Amino acid sequence: MSQKIKVGILGATGMVGQRFVTLLENHPWFELVTLAASAHSAGKTYEEAVGGRWKMETPMPQFVKSMVVKDVADVEGVSADVDFLFSAVNMPKDEIRAIEEQYAKTETPVVSNNSAHRWTPDVPMVVPEINPQHFDVIKYQRKRLGTTRGFIAVKPNCSIQAYTPALAAWKEFEPHEVIVSTYQAISGAGKTFKDWPEMVGNIIPYIAGEEAKSEKEPLKVFGHVDDATGQIVPFEGPLRITSQCIRVPVLNGHTSTVFINFGKDPSKEELVDRLVNYTSEAAKLGLPHAPKQFIQYLTDDDRPQVKLDVDYEGGMGISIGRLRPDSIFDWKFVGLAHNTLRGAAGGALECAEMLHALGYIEAK
């Protein structure tokens, strides 16, 4: 690529914004040129604005330290010098919906990590390996917004990443009843153990809003674009999911335990085969952050483990293990995904890479 696509980050000082910064350092397609945050941070250098709140395990990249942070409310000023934006702002949902649409109406595509627009019917909510065809709805969204170039796309919640890929791989076997418990890392709340010492040796059996997301978002991912209405219609088949979401003392990595019934009667060999041989358009397009093998199956009884497996495929792959028959349901298994890479900034970055590869994001 002779000329890199210029990108900015809305909400650059928060934990997900910081992850975007690290992922965009030396990116082969994208060049980070603009950082935006609240009025409190605006006018400061990025290093000053973040202060002692840098939460990544690697040092702050040198190239961003002296960048002057812009006010995220200055929509025209922030969008002026970028080809598209990542959104990781921390605001009430109605304010996020409004400001992301304002940016899109400046003809600047917005790829959002936030949940605010996940249920806007003409906003695609995409896992690139599963439902990239949902980007087709963008043409209808642009018509609603009155734009020719601007739009909003989002990625799903981090809590669904450890089991929804398995459901996608097993679609032919008609999964229809799923019980899932997610054991979610503290970085999903934007925290480290330094910020949240009371989580050491602790479990909290409640995460606000997570269970509804875990149960409903896979249905939108498995839905289809309805050309008659210009909207995404959630999956209308027999699939039903019920969940419990628990915060556990782990820094990175969401683990899920899953019980599942199928409409058909697959063998274990067939189930494992569909996992390890799952292919996707994302891998075929050679996206920089698309894992070469999306799903790995681990045969050891004590895998997947966070310490051993969370960074599989650079944190962008899914690890599945302990697949075995159940005494009440057909099968059960354990899944693991990196929540701030695959589940957050990395997933949004891969969405942007696919949007660029498909021609939705180009230089202004």
UniProtKB/TrEMBL annotation:
Q: Which residues form the Semialdehyde dehydrogenase NAD-binding domain?
A: 6-138
Q: Which Pfam families match?
A: Semialdhyde_dh, Semialdhyde_dhC
Q: InterPro entries under this entry?
A: ASADH-related (IPR051823), Asp_semi-ald_DH_pep-lack (IPR005676), NAD(P)-bd_dom_sf (IPR036291), Semialdehyde_DH_NAD-bd (IPR000534), Semialdhyde_DH_dimer_dom (IPR012280)
Which of UniProt's keywords are assigned here?
Answer: NADP, Oxidoreductase
Q: What domain of life does the native source organism fall in? A: Bacteria
Query: Does this UniProt record's set of keywords contain Oxidoreductase?
Result: yes
Which molecular function GO terms apply here?
aspartate-semialdehyde dehydrogenase activity
The Enzyme Commission number assigned here is 1.2.1.11
Name residues in a coiled coil: none
Q: Does the keyword Ion transport apply?
A: no
- What is the enzyme's class at the highest EC level? oxidoreductase
Similarity field: Belongs to the aspartate-semialdehyde dehydrogenase family.
Question: PANTHER family, per this entry?
Answer: ASPARTATE-SEMIALDEHYDE DEHYDROGENASE (PTHR46718)
Record's protein name: Aspartate-semialdehyde dehydrogenase
* Natural source organism: Bifidobacterium thermacidophilum
Upper classification of the source organism reads:
Bacteria, Bacillati, Actinomycetota, Actinomycetes, Bifidobacteriales
The gene from which this protein is expressed is asd
